[in-house]
Every structure is written in structure tokens, then in C-alpha cells.
From TrEMBL:
Keywords: ATP-binding, Coiled coil, Microtubule, Motor protein, Nucleotide-binding. Residues 1-10 have a biased composition (Polar residues). Residues 514-541, 596-630 form a coiled coil. Belongs to the TRAFAC class myosin-kinesin ATPase superfamily. Kinesin family. KIN-8 subfamily. This is Kinesin-like protein. SUPFAM superfamilies: P-loop containing nucleoside triphosphate hydrolases. GO terms for biological process: microtubule-based movement. Residues 167-496 form the Kinesin motor domain. ATP binds at residues 259-266. GO terms for molecular function: ATP binding; microtubule binding; microtubule motor activity. Residues 65-87 have a biased composition (Basic and acidic residues). It comes from Dendrobium chrysotoxum (Orchid).
Length: 723
């Protein structure tokens, strides 16, 4: 959908143009003369419309001049205007183009409230779907509290209804102005108000006569918008915390950062060591929440990290050959992707650092360490919770995606690696925009297959998943086109409605009549483990006693009996030969005789004790075996009963998983390929093969370190597809 057209921007109504055809001809004959006349006409028109339009000030206009000092009365008036506008938010067309008169632009750069000419271009496309309508209603500043609570609400709805479709939550994050941008005298063209509304202003160029130095503005409204001062934690808690909560309830979630190169996507996703981003904070949160809730302490968190570079999928944790995408019942998977079992946040951080070092980056004119690939971190969490009667296994997948930024193809004769990269990035982002369009328009066929990126995002866009999109934008007026384009697609994405979000959980309900038996079963299992521990303790005691016996007898005499560990079938009957230097030598004194007798007595006692303990262990072992057998039979019986009453007792449902999958949780986490590559974290460093990277001629980076500020943007809108 084009943002605006010249006819819209002219500020002259079509009817009025028709009234003066002669003048129009004179414009064509002498453009300068025409320009002057046009300016006069516009000034006249402005004067005529000034009064009627005065009450309909747009909030963006007030916000254009941040330094303006208002008198108390002015402030009151403005507050009133803002309040009115808020109230009207539900009925104001979402897409607006605001035109300011030339004089305003010239005199103040930013117009005054009292001297303002604003005209709204009507939205090109009236929203068709009811979803879109409801969404627009929700865009009012405080109309329904959607926004920060949105995902929570969706989750609550899911809680009650089980299955509903969910909308994509769309957030905008404005990054601070970079040093280089400041040095080149960029002006701020974006303002965020009420942590929701984004006002974009286009300052026309001094030499752009055709545009008559008008200042154009647009207004967007998102679930939440973050000004430049927003902390990483705030971004995480508003955008992703609820999604993590959903994952812990067995719902898949996806967060993806979208925007032009240098707009702050990687900063938002990964952050720095001092200011970790969404990926790190989400995993930290996930770990702490799992530990709090996990009923039996057994949980697993599996990680995989891949990149899509030049339309090939690569494993970032174990670089090697490109991976092949396959589709199965669980969705699209990268065959052979390494999955690491992580046990702590620190480990995850290390993995991310490791993976990011392998990520392809190149310096661009905007960003020193521009990501040239789309990176996807997938975290699969499984754990068990227990309510009054059920033990529920929950499985959730969180995908965190840092998309590559777009870059204008440089006018160069050479078809360099960079231009190929750029073309591929744009191709995949274009494919993404086509998918967004198709989803918004409710088409049956969504062209996910057009690129690897969209194939991988199939679950997240329109799939059964809670999805969050964070659109990153730059404040610089030099990046106006990119910012406008990003905001446009973010605005469009709001209208996507994902499929009903299924819950990956298995609840085994214990029926009334079986509750007692289950308790008994648990009790028996507890007793079993206690008996095992007791047996181990006895064994230890026995060893200690034998050790004592050995110490007390040696070197005078060999141990009376061998340890059970070293005993042979005949050891107990063996007669020990006495050494000459051992006991009973010819130099024995009465004292030594006494000592020897005492020692022998002790040894005999100990032998007796050992024998007793051995008998006791044998008895316990036998008892234990019998008890285990009984309990096994009992458990088998219970399982058989549960199997019979499965239809009645099964209360949970599995969205995408099969019953067989549950038997082997690890199987579910992995691709259909065997988890041959599953390794411990220690293997990672060995697994890296920088040579592979070098061979491919790609540069990789060690991100997670403060980056130098960006240079002015030279980028074009990333996808100029028709809306
Ligand atoms: N919210 C922020 N606060 C402070 N600095 C930021 C913020 N967002 C981005 N930056 C800085 O801006 C620069 C560019 O950010 P980043 O690398 O995240 O951009 P990007 O959108 O990922 O770019 P590309 O698509 O080219 O990889 C970095 O130096 C980063 O530190």
C-alpha cells in the first residue's frame, strides 16, 4: 500500500484545481511563475481553512517542537487537544498524512499550534476484516488496556477457551541517535508519546521546490512503543515476559526483531554484556520460572541457534555444512541441527556468545557490525507440574529471531559478495512481506516457501503460536524512508491473526477411585528408594568394619576372612598360612602374647560382626527383591488400569505431539534426524571450525560488546512491495 501520493500531498482539492484550468496551463508554461502563483494560492487556501481546521490539531504537531516552552494556558489547551484526540483515536483513520504549510516550515521548522494547517489523507484501504476493526478500536490510548496486558489476556482466554486464534503483538523500539548521526546534523523525525503512539515527521529538503518545504507527518499506534531511554529489562518485560509464561504453559512463542540495518535489532535481541537483551533475559526468566514450578525437579531446556545466510541455513553452535529444511508433523525443522541441553543461564550466555561469533557480519555504512544473516534461537523447555490430582508434562518452544537489516543495493559495477548478500536479505524480507500481506488479506495460500526465512517463520506467522514483533527504528531524519517502511510493515503485521494456539501438555488425571492407589504407589516408591539407600548404608558399614578388621590384624596376621568383594568361592574355607615373622614367633613375650590374644579377640568380634552384617544384607536383599517384584506387579496393574480408563481420565490434550513422542522427550525436541549431534557444552569449543567460515569467505563476529554508533543511513525501504 503506497504511503501517500502526490495528489494527496498537494493540499489542493481536486475540485479547486479544476476551477482554474488557465492557471494550471500557466504553471506548465513557466514553472517558476507557476510556483509563485501556486504558493500564493496555497497561502490563500491556508488562510481560508485556518479557522475551521484549528480544533483538529494532530498530536504529532504539538510534539514536533520539543523545545517549545508553553505558557500555562497553551499547555492547558494542548492537554485538552491531546485528550480530545485520544478520545477520537478509535474513529480517526489510522494512516494519516499531515501537511503543514510552507510558511510554517520556513519560519519555525516546527509549526506552532495556533498557526497550523493540517489535512488528513484518508486511508487508502478501509479495513475489511472484523479483526482489523477490533484491532483499530484497541489502538485508542486506553480503550481496552491491550498492549502490555495483551498477551496475558490472550493466555487467559486460552486458559478458559482452550483454543483461540491470537493476534501478533506489535511493538516499536526507537534507538538513541548515534554519534555519527549527531555529527552530520541529523534531526529527530520520530516522537513517541504515551508509550504507544509513534509520530513520524518528514522534513522536506530546502532544495525540494516541488514539495514546497512542507512538513509531512504520520501517526501510528502500536501495542506499546519504547522511546530511546527504555531499558532492556523494560523491553523484555513488556514484550516477551508473558510469552515466556505462555511457553511454560505449553504454548509456543516467537519474538522477532524487524527493521532497517543499524536500527537496533541485534541490540534488542542480544544486547551487550552489561545490558543483555531479550534472548538472555528470556532464558534467565525461563530457568528461574521452571525451577520454581517444576514438581519433580526434572526439566530439560534444549537450545539450538541457526542463521539463514544467502538462502542457506547454518548451525551457529556447530558450524559445518548447510542444513536442509524439512517439514514434518511438528512443523519445519532443520535436519541435523545441533541441540544443546543447557543447565544454567551462564551456559546459555556462553552458547549465545559462541553462536554469535559464528554469525556472518559485515560493516555497512550504517552499522560497523551489521548482521548479514537472520539468526534464530530456539529454546525448548519441558518440565512437569502437579496440581491436586494431575501430573502434567508441559512442553513449550520459544523462538527468538534477529532478522538481518535491509540495505540499499549500492550503485556499483561489481557484483560483490555484499550485493549478493543484500539481494538475498531483501529477497527473504520481501518474501516475509508477501506472507504478511497474504495473511492480512486472509488468502488461503501463504507463500511461505518463497524463502528459507519464511519457511522457518511459518510457525510464528499465522501458525499456532503467540507472536511478538519488535520493530526497531532510528530517530534520524536521514533514515526517514527506512523508518516509515518499518512502521508501515509493523502496522500491517498488527492485522495478522495467528491460528488457534494449541497447548503442548499431557495431563494424566488420576480418577477418584484410583487416588488412594496412586498415593499408595507413591508411598511404595518412596519406601523403595529408602530401602535402597538403607542397603547402600549397610554396605558402607560393612566395608568400614572390614577395613577395621584388616587394620587390626595386619601385619601380625592376615585378615581372617576376605572381603566379599575379593572373596573367591573357597575363600571362607581357606586356611591361612602363618608367617614366621607373623604371630607365634619364638621371641614372644607374655606382654606381646596378651596383646596378641586381645587382638585376636577383637578380630574374632569383628569377624562375627562382619558375618552378621553379611547375613543381614543378604536378608535385606532378598526382602528387597521380593518387595520390588510385588511393587512392580502392582505398578504394572495400575498402568494397565489407567490404560483402560485412558479415554475417561485423559484431560489434557496435545496439540502437535503424539503420544509416542512423550515416551522419549528428547525425541520431541529434535529433528527427525537422530540426535547424533547432541553434545555437551564442553564439546562446543572443539566443534567450531573457523576454517569453514574462512573457507566460505564470511566474516563472523563476537558481538555482545558495545558497538560504535551508527553512521547515517543510505538505505532504501527494505521492501517496496505494493500494499
Ligand atoms: N536501544 C539502544 N540503546 C543504545 N544503543 C543502541 C540501541 N539500539 C541500538 N544501539 C546501537 O546502535 C548500533 C546498531 O545496532 P544493531 O547492531 O543492534 O543494529 P541492527 O538493527 O542489528 O543492524 P543490522 O541489521 O545491520 O545488524 C549498535 O552500535 C548498538 O549498540
Amino acid at each position: 500500500m503506497p504511503v501517500s501520493t502526490r495528489s494527496q500531498l498537494s493540499g489542493v482539492r481536486p475540485g479547486e484545481q479544476c476551477q482554474s484550468p488557465g492557471r494550471r496551463h500557466s504553471f506548465l508554461r513557466n514553472p517558476h511563475q507557476g510556483l509563485k502563483e501556486k504558493m500564493k494560492a496555497l497561502t490563500l487556501l491556508y488562510e481560508q481553512h485556518r479557522q475551521p481546521l484549528a480544533p483538529s490539531h494532530h498530536p504529532s504537531i504539538e510534539l514536533l517542537d520539543s523545545n517549545r516552552k508553553n505558557s500555562g494556558e497553551d499547555q492547558k489547551k494542548e492537554q485538552e487537544v491531546v485528550r480530545k484526540n485520544r478520545d477520537r483515536a478509535a474513529v480517526i483513520p489510522r494512516k494519516k498524512t499531515i501537511l503543514f504549510s510552507k510558511n510554517e516550515a520556513k519560519e519555525n521548522k516546527e509549526p506552532k499550534i495556533s498557526d497550523r494547517f493540517a489535512a488528513y489523507s484518508m486511508p487508502r484501504k478501509v479495513a475489511t476484516a472484523a479483526v482489523a476493526a477490533s484491532r483499530r478500536t484497541s489502538m485508542g490510548s486506553v480503550l481496552d488496556g491491550r498492549g502490555m496486558m495483551g498477551i496475558k489476556k490472550i493466555n487467559e482466554e486460552l486458559e478458559t477457551t482452550g483454543d483461540i486464534g491470537s493476534q501478533i503483538m506489535v511493538f516499536v523500539r526507537l534507538r538513541p541517535m548515534g554519534k555519527k548521526e549527531e555529527e552530520t546534523g541529523s534531526r529527530t523525525c520520530v516522537r513517541i508519546v504515551n508509550k504507544r503512539d509513534v509520530y513520524l515527521t518528514e522534513f522536506a529538503s530546502e532544495t525540494d521546490y516541488l514539495r514546497l518545504k512542507r512538513v509531512r507527518g504520520r501517526h501510528f499506534c502500536f501495542d506499546a512503543s519504547f522511546p530511546e531511554s527504555t531499558s532492556q529489562q523494560e523491553v523484555y518485560s513488556t514484550t516477551t515476559a508473558e510469552l515466556v509464561e505462555g511457553v511454560l504453559r505449553g504454548r509456543n512463542g516467537s519474538v522477532f526483531c524487524y527493521g532497517a540495518t543499524g536500527a537496533g535489532k541485534t541490540y534488542t535481541m542480544l544486547g551487550t554484556i552489561e545490558n543483555p537483551g531479550v534472548m538472555v533475559l528470556a532464558i534467565k526468566d525461563l530457568f528461574s520460572k521452571i525451577r520454581q514450578r517444576c514438581f519433580d525437579g526434572k526439566h530439560s531446556v534444549l537450545l539450538s541457534y541457526l542463521e539463514v545466510y544467502n538462502e542457506t541455513v547454518r548451525d551457529l553452535l556447530s558450524p559445518g555444512r548447510p542444513l536442509v529444511l524439512r517439514e514434518d508433523k511438528q512443523g519445519i525443522i532443520a535436519a541435523g541441527l545441533t541441540q544443546y541441553r543447557a543447565y544454567s543461564t551462564d551456559e546459555v550466555m556462553q552458547l549465545l556468545l559462541q553462536g554469535n561469533r559464528n554469525r556472518t557480519t559485515e560493516p555497512t555504512r550504517v552499522n560497523e557490525t551489521s548482521s548479514r544473516s537472520h539468526a534464530i534461537l530456539q529454546v525448548v523447555a519441558e518440565y512437569q507440574v502437579k496440581d491436586s490430582v494431575n501430573v502434567i508434562t508441559r512442553l513449550g518452544k520459544l523462538s527468538l529471531i534477529d532478522l538481518a537489516g535491509s540495505e540499499r543495493a549500492l550503485a556499483t559495477d561489481l557484483r560483490t559478495q555484499r550485493s549478493i548478500e543484500g539481494a538475498n536479505i531483501n529477497r527473504s524480507l520481501l518474501a516475509l512481506s508477501s506472507c504478511i500481506n497474504a495473511l492480512v488479506e486472509g488468502k488461503r495460500h501463504i507463500p511461505y516457501r518463497n524463502s528459507k526465512l519464511t519457511q522457518l517463520l511459518k510457525d510464528s506467522l499465522g501458525g499456532p503460536c503467540n507472536t511478538v514483533m519488535i520493530a526497531n527504528i532510528s530517530p534520524s531524519n536521514l533514515s526517514f524512508n527506512e523508518t516509515q517502511n518499518t512502521l508501515h510493515w509493523a502496522d500491517r503485521a498488527k492485522e495478522i491473526r495467528n491460528k488457534a494456539c494449541s497447548v503442548n501438555e499431557e495431563a494424566v488425571q488420576i480418577p477418584e477411585f484410583e487416588t488412594e492407589q496412586t498415593k499408595l504407589l507413591l508411598e511404595l516408591q518412596k519406601q523403595n528408594s529408602e530401602l535402597r539407600q538403607q542397603a547402600v548404608r549397610l554396605q558402607e558399614k560393612l566395608f568400614i568394619a572390614q577395613a577395621h578388621a584388616l587394620v587390626s590384624n595386619s601385619p601380625q596376621q592376615p585378615p581372617p576372612t576376605s572381603s566379599p568383594l575379593i572373596s573367591t568361592p573357597h575363600s571362607t574355607n581357606r586356611k591361612h598360612k602363618r608367617s614366621i615373622l607373623g604371630g607365634g614367633n619364638c621371641f614372644s613375650t607374655p606382654d606381646s602374647m596378651k596383646t596378641r590374644t586381645a587382638n585376636e579377640r577383637i578380630a574374632q568380634d569383628l569377624q562375627k560382626r562382619v558375618m552378621e552384617l553379611e547375613t543381614e544384607i543378604e536378608r535385606l536383599k532378598k526382602e528387597h527383591v521380593v518387595q520390588l517384584k510385588q511393587k512392580d506387579d502392582f505398578i504394572r496393574g495400575l498402568i494397565a488400569k489407567q490404560g483402560e480408563g485412558k479415554c475417561k481420565s485423559r484431560v489434557g490434550k496435545r496439540g502437535s505431539l503424539l503420544k509416542e513422542d512423550l515416551k522419549s522427550p528428547t525425541h520431541r525436541f529434535t529433528s527427525p534426524q537422530p540426535i547424533a549431534k547432541k553434545r555437551s557444552f564442553c564439546d562446543i569449543s572443539a566443534a567450531n571450525s573457523p576454517s569453514v567460515i574462512a573457507a566460505n569467505g564470511r566474516k563472523t563476529r563476537s558481538h555482545v560488546a558495545p558497538q560504535s554508533p551508527s553512521a547515517p543511513s543510505m538505505l532504501l525501504p527494505l521492501a517496496s512491495a505494493k500494499l
